[in-house]
Every structure is written in C-alpha cells, then in structure tokens.
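Quick start: what a row looks like.
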Amino acid sequence: MVQFLIRYISLKALLLCGFTVVVTVMISSFRVPAKPYKYTLKTIVIDPGHGGSDPGCIATATQEKTIALQVSLKLGKMLKDSFPLMRVIFTRKTDKFVDLNERAVLANREKADLFLCIHVNTSSSTVAYGTETFAMGLHKAEGNLAVAKRENEVILLEKDYKEKYEGYDPNSPESNIIFTLNQNAFLNQSLALAAKIENEFKKSKRFSRGVKQAGFLVLWKCSMPSVLCETGFLSNPAERAYITSDSCQNIIATNLYKAIKSYKAEVER
C-alpha cells in the first residue's frame, strides 16, 4: 500500500511537472517580441545669428540680427504647433549677444538632433541676391570664404577668443585653411538638410545660390547635423524689402519648417 502511494504521488508530480513545462512553452510562444529601437528627432536648436552688441550686416536702418530673430521665432512656433513633443530650443530669444562657441555648447549639452543657424547675407554689390545654405566644410570658392570670414569675425567681440577657438584668427588666411580641415562628422546629414532647405526656397520662387561648404565657427563643435542658412541679401534693395516684410518672413519660416519636416520624416524612416 505504501509503495502504491509513493508511485501514485511520483506519477502525479511528474504529470504536474510536464503540464507546467507545456504551459510555459505555450506562453513563451505567444510572447510579443520586443520592438526594435526607433529613432525620433526630438530636439532642435534654432540659432538666430548675431544679437546685442553684434548687429551683423546693416543696410539703411535694417540690421541682420533683427531679421534673424524674427524668422527664428516664427519657425519655432510652427515647429511647436506641428510637433508638440519636439523640444525647440533657442540660443537667444531676445536681442542679446551670445558667444559663438556657447551656441554649440548649448546644442551639445541639450543633446540636440539638429542645429540650424539663421542669418542674412550682404555683398559689396547691390545686385547680389538669393538664398544659400552652408554645411561645415572646406572653402571651395572665394565667395564661401568671404561669407565665413564675415560671420566668424564676431569672435573679435569676445574675450580671450584665441584661447577659446584654439588660436583661430579670422583675419589670417593660414588660420582659415587649417580650421577648415576640421570636417563635420555629420556632413552627409547636414548636406541633406541644406538641400531640402534650398529646394523649399526654389518652390517659393526664390533664387537659390545652392548648397555650399565653409568653415563657420558656430558649426565647428556641433555634435549633430548642423547648417547655416543665409535667407537673403540686405544689400539688395528689392530683397531687403522682401526679408523685412512680416508676410515674407512667414514664407521664409515656412520654407525652413517644410525642409525640417521632410528631413525629420526621412531620418525617422
């Protein structure tokens, strides 16, 4: 009788163990696989060029720093309205001076996915016109070098600029050559965004001067795709009237917004 009970208990335990294994296998087979990581463009830093004691280029009573800020704020609102979960950060939201390296430091600290500088162009010729968007890279034309030197000269307003920018001198040809050998690790993405921006300008019947590369200090240490957009020429009276108009600034901001939206969709795919 005792042996029978032992065998009965052992058989019951064996059956119970087998049932547990079967149930475990069945549950495992129905387990939902972990979703793969999906990249999303979460943070963008918008950098209105110049500001405060640095007016940028000037024509009549119009200053570059004012237009850059106006367009930047319009673009920021469009992005926030369209993408509520996106963090839109400004290097400045008022008329204040911000060191060039501090703009990149902010973007890196906030782990931005994108860095966009908004500027206005100028020329010694009053007939020069159009838009152009730059990525960090080698100066492949004298015109590119001239734009970069003009935008970089703002560091002369900063204290200890030679220490902060590792001896860079905006007035030295040798310094510019050495500096531009620092290639942007995100060059392909930067050029892709720049191309989208210029394509959107073309759709608005603006003349695009193309996508270019030059050594901009503000882009130098950005650890993310970054571009600098020259939205028009203050030195051209007709274009000055366009880029100072509120309605036309909305068009410029919309062009930039559409380019970023397209870029966002592309990288998230």
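That is the whole record. The chain has two domains: 1-31, 43-268. Residues 19-23 have pLDDT under 50 and may be disordered.
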